[in-house]
Amino acid sequence: MATAQRIVEMMERSSWIRRMFETGAELKAKHGARNVYDFSLGNPNLEAPGEVHRIVAEELGREDPSLHAYMPNAGYPHVREAVADYVSREQGVAVSADHIIMTCGAGGAMNVALKSILNPGDTVLATTPCFMEYGFYADNHGGNLELVPGRPDFDLDVDRLEEKITRRTAAVIVNSPNNPSGRVYPASTITALSGMLMRKSRENGRAVYLLSDEPYRKIVYDGVQVPSVLAAYGNSIVVTSHSKDLSLPGERIGYLAVNPAAEDAENLMPAMILCNRILGYVNAPALWQRVAGRAQGLKVDTGVYQRKRDMLCGGLRKIGYDFREPEGTFYLFPKSPTEDELATVDALRSRLILTVPGRGFGCPGHFRISFCVADEVIERSMDGFAAAFEQVGGRTDR
């Protein structure tokens, strides 16, 4: 076999999200796109803000021979300055341009961070439910991802995380607002996590980094505030992208911010800049760096997503589905009416409704609904949700 066996094995356990998305493409070809209710992929359906379009047009209209040239691997200095200024205000910690690296999205940033801190055989912890490609990212750089169950309300279980930390633990990954649950970890949890990591780092004689994956930070509802990880813990790194807050997932633009108080920060930043280059990213896309530098603080109209959330939750609650209303993101993560959520996902699929099983996020017994879709998709899918609920044994008064 010409393909590496390790990659073949990875393909067999690869993303349920993509699997369902590909199923959706087949169903749309067979039944027509309007008749398929695709809640599988977190692909924003809102346009980027008008100001972003204006900035793009201005940048493309510039006459400059260096417009598409290489720049420092960490990114344009003026863009890093603009990002650092915004991050300082957002996180409540003074961050300079020297602690910012522009990256190819949050996935690129996470890979750069992990390559810079992992030794072969090190472990990385993440709480379920979570984005399961963290495991592939850790494996890319000789590490192993260990999943730690969260609490029933999808909050972090700090005590369980503490039990899993050893001298081989290099990092803990948190994602808030969380994909797939929409949970925003409260300040009290982040404070407890920070205290625990400080204690374990001292005990083990090794800094445990806290990697905060924050692409949904600006997509929150009902006045919820996302606590600052940089303010809570010195050995912290924020990775993020503008895929969700500016609706630019295909442009692959993001950044990482290293806490200036991090141990070995003087070596860590050059290490990350080197990794950004040798992983093959070289640098983040030039045009989109310039756009991002001018677009700091902008975001899509999250009120539109909140309306979709309320529409979906209202309909599913009336049917009888059990769920915790998301505080952020554009995902809902209900309990399956039957213990095997694949039965629910299959029942929904038979009615041309595409969702993602919770085992794709390390949390069987639930399933994910991505509500960044047209309002009519939500409205027209409700009869199918009700029929599937009854099919798998749920009871509805509809």
Tell me what the structure shows.
It is a single chain. This protein is an alpha/beta fold and 398 residues long. It has 2 domains: 5-49 and 301-391, Alpha-Beta Complex (Aspartate Aminotransferase, domain 1), CATH 3.90.1150; 70-295, Type I PLP-dependent aspartate aminotransferase-like (Major domain) (Aspartate Aminotransferase, domain 2, 3-Layer(aba) Sandwich), CATH 3.40.640.10. It is 42% helix and 13% strand. A 7-stranded mixed beta sheet has the order 2-8-7-6-5-3-4, sandwiched between helices. Strands 9-12-11 form a 3-stranded antiparallel beta sheet. α6 (134-140) links the parallel β3 and β4 (144-149). α5 packs across α10. It is globular, with a radius of gyration of 21 Å. The relative contact order is 0.16.
Class inferred from helices and paired strands: alpha/beta
Mean pLDDT: 95
Output the number of helix runs. 14
Fraction of residues in helices? 40-55%
Q: Strand percentage, roughly?
A: 5-15%
Q: What is the CATH class name of the largest domain?
A: Alpha Beta
What does the overall shape look like?
globular
The tally of strands reads: 12
Question: Biggest sheet, in brief?
Answer: 7 strands, mixed
The arrangement of helices and strands along the chain is HHEHHEHEHEHEHEHEEHHHEHEEEH
